[in-house]
């Protein structure tokens, strides 16, 4: 008998995805609280039943393995429910940036081609309604926040029986899609597998000191992998996830005080607002901060001081490799060492590993690496060399094996917690009839770390002014991506091979403050 045949009965035993973890949580922690969102409070057993009902709704809408689901809304416990329901039926969820412009939403609808769209009425209903009308008016759109017209999330899950029969999931299949930008001037959805999400959730659980007694304030945007990993780490540990739809300093203080939350994702500018609002100590933040003045705040991922990541906070990561999966809390200096589930090398353009101390592109392989970009076969082929994923980031090794992150091959701008890619903003500006050439750079900002600055060469005879270009970007991109400053130049410095010399543009026009780790 062949070995494969002899072991065949056990093949299905190893099939395990995020939906299976929920089943086990419902068995192991049936009465423990899982989610808090306004008046909504559910135990793990209740969450399991709701997810099974939502899975039935998706199946009734024709959702099959490999189909895509798009979330066009702000934070909600229903994002977690939808992700888990997708895990049950084998679909892929993309939580979109709720601040996308109509053009960006239209692009994602065409590109991702979702079978079902979950959308929100509050604040962004008009944009979402317009996007549906312009795309496919008869497509499957489900309103999650109580819309009076059309299909309603809560009404739909109350009307169906819970699904309980789910085929085993292959852990390497994609479950989550996160749109990133920077390699071609247009966004691409990186696909992360069940296996990757489970591993990164466990890594985050260990790094941030999350236990079943923890409460995580889901206050950062859930289209960011760092926020989702905190959410999944808490879910994996059996803790409480407390959701707010968007960042409001007053509401965050109220939630921390009332729910005694222990972990959070809060950007530095919001911390400043919280300090001002709580100067009189009205709200008890001691579950999250040791100091009432929050002087122990160190980074957006807020966690107990004894957590491994707080003790050694450096690291390197990107969405395509599961987030922050190289870190100093795992040892080493600079950006630290890779997790046990990731292999890394620093290589030249030919993919051959470079000697210690020599800068090159960071390559990675292993179960944490994405399954590829959705609908980008050429980019996928370009990014993989001899079984290694090319990160498009530069790094080098130290003598002790630690990794140093040198910087992006295509420079990234960091404004608050938002990643902004010059290529995307430049592609937008080049569509303007008055722009002949452009280079987008980051300039230091005391509040947001960096602001976006566009150095523009006008077309001959064009009389375009800065406000026109800023408004042009505002109409097509999320508002935080638009240039805050526009400066005109006669020409842009270029390299010997004809490409714009970004380093020279930085020096001439005040660039700096780019993010670096290690």
From TrEMBL:
Every AMP-dependent synthetase/ligase domain range: 23-374
GO terms for MF: medium-chain fatty acid-CoA ligase activity
UniProt-listed SUPFAM superfamilies: Acetyl-CoA synthetase-like (SSF56801)
Pfam families: AMP-binding, AMP-binding_C
Residues annotated as domain AMP-binding enzyme C-terminal: 424-498
Statement: the UniProt record of this protein carries the keyword Ligase: yes
Keywords for the protein's UniProt record, in alphabetical order: Ligase
CDD domains: PtmA
Organism superkingdom: Bacteria
Keyword Ligase found: yes
Biological processes annotated in GO: fatty acid metabolic process
Chain coiled-coil ranges: none
Membrane spanning residue stretches: none
Protein name as it appears in the record: AMP-dependent synthetase and ligase
């Amino acid at each position: 008998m062949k070995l494969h045949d002899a072991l065949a009965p056990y093949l299905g035993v190893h099939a395990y995805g995020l939906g299976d973890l929920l089943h086990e949580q419902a068995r192991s922690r049936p009465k423990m609280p899982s989610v808090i969102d306004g008046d909504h409070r559910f135990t793990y057993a209740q969450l399991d039943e709701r997810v099974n009902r939502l899975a039935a709704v998706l199946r009734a809408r024709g959702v099959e393995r490999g189909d895509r689901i798009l979330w066009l809304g702000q934070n909600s416990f229903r994002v977690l429910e939808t992700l888990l329901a997708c895990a049950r039926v084998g679909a892929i969820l993309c939580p979109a940036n709720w601040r996308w412009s109509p053009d960006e939403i239209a692009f994602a609808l065409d590109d991702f081609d979702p079978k079902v769209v979950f959308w929100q009425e509050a604040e962004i209903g008009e944009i979402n309604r317009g996007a549906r009308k312009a795309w496919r008016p008869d497509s499957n759109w489900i309103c999650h926040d109580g819309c009076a017209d059309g299909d309603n999330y809560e009404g739909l899950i109350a009307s169906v029986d819970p699904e309980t029969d789910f085929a085993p999931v292959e852990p390497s299949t994609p479950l989550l899609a996160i749109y990133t930008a920077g390699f071609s001037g247009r966004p691409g959805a990186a696909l992360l597998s069940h296996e990757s999400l489970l591993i990164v959730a466990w890594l985050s659980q260990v790094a941030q000191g999350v236990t079943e007694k923890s409460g995580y304030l889901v206050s950062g945007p859930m289209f960011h992998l760092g926020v989702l990993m905190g959410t999944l780490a808490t879910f994996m540990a059996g803790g409480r996830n407390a959701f707010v739809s968007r960042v409001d300093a007053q509401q965050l203080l109220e939630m921390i005080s009332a729910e005694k939350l222990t972990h959070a994702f809060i950007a530095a500018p919001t911390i400043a607002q919280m300090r001002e609002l709580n100067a009189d100590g009205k709200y008890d933040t001691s579950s999250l901060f040791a100091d009432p003045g929050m002087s122990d705040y160190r980074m957006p991922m807020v966690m107990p001081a004894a957590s491994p990541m707080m003790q050694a906070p450096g690291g390197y990561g990107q969405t395509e490799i599961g987030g922050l999966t190289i870190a100093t809390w795992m040892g080493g200096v600079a950006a630290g060492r890779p997790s046990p589930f990731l292999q890394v090398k620093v290589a030249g353009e030919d993919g051959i590993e470079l000697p210690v101390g020599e800068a090159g592109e960071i390559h990675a392989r292993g179960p944490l690496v994405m399954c590829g970009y959705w609908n980008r076969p050429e980019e996928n082929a370009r990014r993989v060399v001899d079984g290694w994923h090319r990160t498009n980031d530069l790094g080098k090794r130290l003598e002790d094996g630690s990794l140093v992150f040198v910087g992006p091959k295509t420079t990234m701008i960091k404004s608050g917690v938002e990643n902004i890619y010059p290529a995307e903003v430049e592609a937008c500006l080049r569509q303007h009839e008055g722009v002949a050439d452009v280079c987008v750079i980051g300039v230091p900002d005391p509040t947001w770390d960096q602001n976006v600055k566009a150095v523009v060469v006008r077309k001959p005879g064009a009389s375009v002014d800065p406000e026109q270009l800023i408004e042009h970007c505002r109409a097509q991109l999320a508002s935080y991506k638009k240039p805050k400053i526009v400066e005109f130049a006669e020409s842009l410095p270029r390299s010997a091979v004809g490409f714009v010399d970004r380093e020279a543009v930085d020096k001439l026009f005040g660039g700096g403050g780019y993010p670096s780790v290690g």
